[in-house]
What we know:
By secondary structure, this protein is α+β, with helices and mostly antiparallel strands. The chain has 3 domains: 2-102, no CATH class; 134-292, Cytochrome c-like domain (Cytochrome Bc1 Complex, Chain D, domain 2), CATH 1.10.760; 296-448, Orthogonal Bundle (Cytochrome Bc1 Complex, Chain D, domain 2), CATH 1.10.760. 24% of the residues lie in helices and 12% in strands. The protein has helices spanning 139-144, 155-166, 178-181, 230-233, 236-239, 248-256, 259-269, 276-288, 296-303, 310-319, 328-331, 357-361, 393-403, 434-445; strands at 2-10, 15-22, 36-41, 48-53, 59-65, 72-78, 83-88, 96-102. The protein has a 5-stranded mixed β-sheet, with no helix packed on it. Strands 3-4-7 form a 3-stranded antiparallel β-sheet, with no helix packed on it. Strand 1 (2-10) and strand 2 (15-22) form a beta hairpin. Helix 2 packs across helix 8 and helix 13 packs across helix 14 (434-445). The radius of gyration is 27 Å and the shape is elongated.
Amino acid sequence: MKAYKSNSFTGKAATLLAAVVITSTQAQYQIPPQATLQLGPGPRGNPGNVQVRDPGNNVWTLQRSPDFKNWKDVERFKIHNGSLRRGISMGPPVEQGFFRAICDPTRQEPPANGDPALTLGTTLLNYAAPDLPAHFQTRQIRAQDNTPANNPVTNAGATLGRVLFHDKRLSANQTVSCASCHQAEHGFSDPRQFSVGFEGGRTGRNSMGLINARYYLRRHFFWDERANTLEDQVLQPIQNPVEMGMTLAGLETRLAAEPFYATLFTQAFGSAEVTSRRISLALAQFVRSIISTNSKYDAGVANGFANFTPQENLGRDIFLGRVGRATCVNCHGSDNFVPGDRINNNGLENPYRDKGVGEVTGRPEDEGLFKVPSLRNIELTAPYMHDGRFQTLEQVVEFYNSGVVNHPNLSGPLRARPQPGRPPGGALRLNLSNQEKAALVSFLKTLTDRSITTDQRFSDPFNYGN
């Protein structure tokens, strides 16, 4: 035998050696692929801790021995979503004790009294009837809602979607979930320029934030709008060879093997049957439930923006075109800060290395057209643009101030107004002062709603131990 990893530490009544042991010849307790194990002291050395990372979600057995020869089970535990950390029960004091954690392929029945896989509680959280302020119940905002009649948000459906969103089983090797690239603390986007897929490959575009995706009037999704609906969009990353690399048939089989999914699918759809259609509906319901209405801006709508600083009010006036030449509101309109029924070319470059919609349609007139995301929580969703080229809001503002490139498909709001003696159609230059640029950034930060990043309804529901 050989020790795979060991750590000495002091417990309450004894010096303990924590080790995982594998057999070098028979491989009786071989570590599962990609799994890691660490045993060590708990708080102040009492009790100990066991930490396992195991994409295979196997059942592990914690054992104790007084002499490193005779091992006795202490407890068994199942990994639920790739990792677990919990305290070790030391048992009766001994002069010296040894612990090990093993993954025995012949003992994979979940423990009868094991910890539940999920921490959802007994009462469903409210997704179906969000408490929306008055300015989110206007005709304009309601018209932006892309919820189809055949898939309204329900408490049970969005709860299932929440579990699916955070479940790494959706990727081929069970290492990546939707939440891996759409992180709540970053406005449900990815702070990396390009996201990392299940085998380490990188995506071709930056992961767009999901907040208020429900209010995209055009209803199409992805930067190039290749998905006709949100229901179509949510299944594509699962099957993408870089992102998650899973087949829908394989996913259906995998999820059907998990007892907790039988309960969740029954609650949402009336039976335990797992289908890709149901997965699509539930994920779309969850994404549509991520609605931000609790920013400084929202409070300002209700009080005439008396809560804004002079700098923030100046930035708002610039954004709305009341001061200077900015045309921001033309592509980020309404209290959702989203476009109307048009898709835009914002003059990032000419020619475009990534042609956007033009890559999908092959039409020259579509080159450089990209989906315009909501600006809500824009402070949290760096880096910016489809290729993540800008790291800060200051860089974004400077781009629109002085860096927009003329292009045949450049959107109208970014074209300069005709001037006597000058050729028409050039890129707009805002010529903002440093004070005005800082004010515009300050206004954009009033759209930040950090409460949504910690809302229990959108958090990871899996049980990772104590």
